[in-house]
Design a protein that fits this description.
five-stranded mixed sheet, Aspartate Aminotransferase, domain 1, 395 residues, 2 domains, seven-stranded mixed sheet, 13 helices, Aspartate Aminotransferase, domain 2
Length: 395
C-alpha cells in the first residue's frame, strides 16, 4: 500500500507550487499578439516588477530560464576579453562564471565554499589589487539555490565603494525574488537577475533582468550583445513585439499577472515575513533531528547566512537519498536533490518558496520524520513540536 495517492507536494527549489489562481489564469484561448488586451496587460507588469525588485529603473523580460538571464546579463555587461569578478557560495555561482567564460569573458573567482557567505573584506581586497581597473563587474548570488547560503548584498556594495573601484554590482536573485527581502536601489545594485519559476509562482520560461541607468551607460560599448539578448529594446520597446524579440509568451504573461496580483494583495513585506517564518520551522526541525544523529545538520551554521526560500541539509550517505525516495513514493512529497554537495546522496534540500503555507511546510516535515522512522535512520526527538512552536509564535 502507498499513502502517496492524492495531490503531490513538490517541495523542491523550483519549479515551485503553482497556485490554482495562476493555473486558472492560463486556461484561455491564445490572444491577439499585436494589440489589445494582452498589450494592455503587459503595460501593467512593469511597475509591479520594479516594485518587486525595489527599483525605479529598468526591467526587461526574456523568454528564458535563470541560465538565460545569466547570459542576458553577460551579453550586456561585457565585451570579449573583459574581466568579471565572481563571488561563489555554491553551484550556481560557478554556473554564472561558466556562462561568462563560455562567452569570452575573463573570470576571476573567489570561492567561499558551500556553507559560508561572501566575506566583503575579501571582495574589497580583490578590487584594491585590480590597480588597472580591469574588473568590469562583480557577479554575486544573493542566495545560492544549491547551498542555501545567503550573502549580505549591501555589504558588497560597501566593499566596492570602500575600494574606490568602478565595477558594477550584479546580483543573482533567482532563488530569492519574492521570497527574501531585496531592495535593488537602496542596496546599490546595478543589475539584478531572476526567473519566474520560484518565488513568482509562474511556470519556468520567463527571465527578468533589472538594470540601472548607470549599467546601461557603462555597458553601451558591449560587443557581446546580439539582437535577442539586447536589453535595450526590451526595456524601451517602441512596438509590442520588441519586448519579446518576436512572439510574446502569452500564457506566461497571464500567469505572471495573476502571481503579481497575489503578491500585491498579501503585501511584499508580509511575503518576506512568511518565508522567514517557514524557513525557521524547517531549521528548528532539522536542528532537533540532528541532536540525536551528528550526520544530520543544516548546511549553513550561521542563521544570518541562511536563505528563506530553500534549506540545504546533510542527512548522511546514503540516507538522504533513501529519505528522498521514501517521502516521494510513500507519501507524495518530493524533496530537492543534494546539488553541488559531496556525496550527493548524503544531502537534500527542502524548499519553502512561493505559494507555500504553514500546513504545507509542517506536513513536509512530518512526512520527513515518518520517513526517518520507517527507514530506521537515527534522529533526535521533538522536531515537529519545535516547528509547530515557531508557527504558533509567528501566528
Amino acid at each position: 500500500m502507498t499513502l502517496a495517492n492524492g495531490r503531490p507536494y513538490l517541495a523542491i527549489p523550483g519549479p515551485s507550487v503553482m497556485p490554482d489562481r495562476v493555473l486558472a489564469a492560463m486556461q484561455r484561448p491564445s490572444p491577439n499578439i499585436y494589440e489589445g488586451p494582452l498589450a494592455d496587460l503587459t503595460e501593467t507588469l512593469w511597475p509591479d516588477l520594479r516594485a518587486l525588485a525595489g527599483t525605479a529603473e529598468n526591467v526587461a523580460i526574456f523568454i528564458a530560464n535563470g541560465h538565460g538571464t545569466w547570459e542576458a546579463a553577460n551579453a550586456n555587461l561585457f565585451s570579449r576579453g573583459d574581466k568579471a569578478l565572481v563571488l561563489a557560495t555554491g553551484r550556481f555561482g560557478h554556473g554564472w562564471a561558466e556562462s561568462a567564460r563560455a562567452m569570452g569573458v575573463e573570470v576571476e573567482m573567489i570561492d567561499f565554499g558551500t556553507s559560508t557567505a561572501i566575506d566583503p573584506a575579501r571582495l574589497e581586497a580583490a578590487l584594491r589589487a585590480d590597480t588597472e581597473g580591469r574588473i568590469r563587474a562583480v557577479l554575486a548570488t544573493h542566495v545560492d539555490t544549491s547551498s542555501s547560503v545567503k550573502s549580505d548584498v549591501p555589504a558588497l556594495r560597501a566593499a566596492i565603494d570602500a575600494a574606490g573601484h568602478p565595477a558594477l554590482l550584479a546580483v543573482d536573485c533567482i532563488a530569492t525574488m519574492g521570497c527574501d527581502e531585496y531592495r535593488m536601489d537602496a542596496w546599490g545594485v546595478d543589475v539584478t537577475v531572476a526567473a519566474s519559476q520560484k518565488g513568482l509562482m509562474t511556470p519556468p520560461g520567463l527571465g527578468f533582468v533589472w538594470f540601472s541607468e548607470k549599467a546601461r551607460a557603462v555597458t553601451a560599448r558591449s560587443d557581446l550583445r546580439t539582437p535577442y539578448w539586447d536589453w535595450g529594446p526590451r526595456a524601451d520597446a517602441a512596438e509590442f513585439w520588441q519586448y519579446w524579440a518576436g512572439t510574446a509568451p502569452t500564457h506566461h504573461l497571464f500567469a505572471l499577472r495573476e502571481a503579481l496580483d497575489m503578491i500585491g494583495e498579501e503585501g511584499l513585506p508580509n511575503v518576506w515575513n512568511l518565508h522567514k517564518a517557514l524557513a525557521r520551522t524547517v531549521h528548528v526541525a532539522i536542528d532537533a533531528w540532528g541532536a540525536g544523529n551528528p550526520a544530520i545538520a543544516l548546511n549553513v551554521a550561521d542563521p544570518a547566512a541562511r536563505g528563506h526560500s530553500v534549506t540545504a541539509a546533510r542527512f548522511g550517505s546514503p540516507d538522504a537519498a533513501r529519505l528522498r525516495q521514501w517521502t516521494e513514493t510513500e507519501a507524495g512529497v518530493t524533496l530537492g536533490i543534494g546539488l553541488g554537495q559531496v556525496p550527493a546522496d548524503g544531502w537534500l534540500r527542502v524548499a519553502h518558496m512561493g505559494h507555500v503555507n504553514a500546513h504545507m511546510t509542517l506536513g513536509a516535515l512530518a512526512v520527513m520524520e515518518a520517513g526517518l522512522k520507517a527507514l530506521g535512520i537515527p534522529h533526535g526527538q521533538g522536531a515537529l513540536s519545535a516547528a509547530a512552536a515557531v508557527v504558533a509564535a509567528e501566528a
